[in-house]
Amino acid sequence: MEIQQQKGVGNSKVVKVEKEESWDLFVNQASNEGHPVVAHFGASWCVTSLSMNYKFEELAQTHPEILFLYVDVDDVQSVSSKLGVKAMPTFFLIKDKEVVNKIVGANPDEVKKMVDASAESFGVTAPPDIVVE
Q: Are 11 and 55 in contact (CB under 8 A)?
């Protein structure tokens, strides 16, 4: 399996999910290691979703203890459908394989609050050790 960086981001800390199996692997590994996951569901054609990429990357750079995933709803429809994504962008905070928070829309301040609060409340301090084959 290969981790792909988001287009336009040089040293991205955001992992682009290419298929459902990758999603399951990343979420399971993060959960097993006690790390939260923040997932950005968007689309390449959605301007508001694209406008959040920079802020999402910035959060990933400042919170290495959290696994940040990007899911294109057109590429990984099964995961988008399973989580009930109906608008882009949609952001999920996942802990222990369960959705604990959801934000719909391009609201960078709310996403930052969610990420900052999750880092504090989960007390995680080390980055997740994701194994990629």
A: no
Question: Where would I find the H helices in the chain?
Answer: 20-32, 47-51, 53-62, 77-82, 108-122
Q: What is the pTM of this model?
A: 0.84
Coil, helix or strand at residue 6: coil
Write down the domain spans for the chain: 14-118
Place of tokens 């959040």: 52
Measured CA to CA, the distance from residue 66 to residue 122 in angstroms comes to 10
Higher pLDDT, 89 or 117: 89
**pLDDT tens-digit map of 57-71:** 999 999 998 999 999
Yes or no: say if 31 and 61 are a contact pair by the CB < 8 Å rule.
no
Which fold would CATH assign to domain 14-118? Glutaredoxin (3.40.30)
* Parallel, antiparallel or unpaired: strands 37-42 and 67-72: parallel
Give backbone dihedrals phi and psi of 32, rounded to 5 degrees, phi first. -60, -30
